[in-house]
Design brief:
single chain, about 350 residues, alpha/beta, 5-stranded mixed beta sheet, two-stranded parallel ribbon
Length: about 350
């Protein structure tokens, strides 16, 4: 079972601080087949390819009229298991800029690494990642570690000790939140703003003629994310319970930011199946922590969440991990859906 950790609530004014000093571009050895990055397409726009919706939103909001954005993950497609056709992989080489998040979509990671595009913007390079998920995620990771344990034991021994030390102090009776490295950074408005800053700088590097506009658009978006962070902080400050149950472990960063505790049915992968032991744990958590609602999401199956809710006599609700926008989404863009998520959390947690 995952465990609670002390929240790391950052003041809103820290959203933009320090991000500009981070590395911006991963440069590959050869340029794009479409010519020099920044030349743009036939209409002069910078051709930007985004891996999935959260990256698309940043590229469109920051790029504005100067970019033409295409997305590898179509609306309604669950991004974790996306496969690319040979045609889609080939078309990737035509981009001036690629904006993606490593570790979420293995097929996309592989295709981008082979694309030869000059300007590749990798979202996790602008912020820090942590391990979230369930003990079953951790056990799965341990199995892979055992397979490779003889390859590099000495090199990793100190790292493992540091990792264990970082988590030892945080156990408060809810088990451990060890698990897979969590890529869902966009669900924390503070971390998402750090990524926005990096994307803005990267677009300005790729298209210096329009750098001033990219900078202005980035500042405007960060201001909106600052406001969103303040709304979450105020809206979740006083609740009857701090625990919520979700379909998969997408909300670890959000939970930490606002002092909440996520319990996931599945782990980081939404398609993974929970064990009987995990379901028993969730029964105990729901009773002990006065949980009222089991959340499911729009792009993954809701069958297990509804069954668990029925067994416990709890309500169901939607908490959207914002991996894509469809006609079933509770809003037209990232900001609207995040505010719908805030309303859903306030209702489930008994916020005053």
């Amino acid at each position: 079972m995952s465990r609670r950790r002390r929240p790391r609530i950052s003041p809103a004014r820290t959203l933009a601080a320090g991000a500009a000093a981070l590395g911006v571009l991963t440069l590959t050895a050869c340029g794009s087949d479409s010519g020099t990055a920044g030349d743009g397409g036939a209409d002069g726009a910078l051709e930007v390819t985004a891996s999935f919706y959260p990256m698309e939103f940043l590229a469109e909001r920051i790029g504005g009229e100067h970019v033409s954005v295409t997305t590898l993950t179509k609306p309604g497609v669950e991004p974790h298991d996306l496969d690319l056709s040979p045609k889609e992989t080939a078309r990737l080489t035509e981009a001036d800029v690629i904006v993606y998040l490593k570790g979420l979509q293995p097929a996309v990671d592989e295709a981008i690494a082979q694309s030869g595009v000059q300007h590749i913007v990798e979202a996790t390079s602008f912020t820090s990642l942590e391990a979230h998920g369930t003990d079953e995620d951790h056990a799965h990771d341990d199995e892979h570690a055992d397979d490779d344990e003889h390859a590099d034991d000495d090199e990793h021994a100190d790292d493992d000790h540091d990792h264990d030390h970082d988590h030892d102090h945080a156990d408060d009776g809810h088990g451990h939140d060890h698990g897979a490295e969590d890529p869902h950074i966009w669900l924390d408005p503070v971390k998402y703003a750090e990524v926005a800053q990096g994307v803005g700088t990267a677009l300005a590097e790729a298209d210096p003629d329009n750098a001033a506009d990219y900078e202005a658009n980035t500042e405007a978006l960060i201001a909106e994310l600052t406001t969103l962070d303040e709304e979450f902080t105020a809206g979740l400050a006083d609740t009857e319970t701090r625990t919520f149950i979700t379909t998969h472990a997408a909300f670890g960063y959000l939970a930490e930011r606002y002092g909440l505790h996520e319990e996931a049915i599945a782990g980081i992968d939404p398609e993974s199946e929970p064990s009987a032991a995990r379901l028993r744990e969730l029964h105990e958590v729901a009773e002990q922590d006065n949980v009222s609602t089991v959340f499911f999401e729009t792009l993954a199956s809701d069958a297990t969440a509804r069954t668990l809710a029925d067994d416990l006599g709890l309500k169901t609700g939607v908490l959207d991990p914002l991996e894509g926008i469809t006609d079933r989404s509770a809003g037209a863009d990232y900001l609207e859906v995040m505010r719908a998520n805030l309303a859903a959390l306030r209702d489930a947690l008994g916020a005053s």
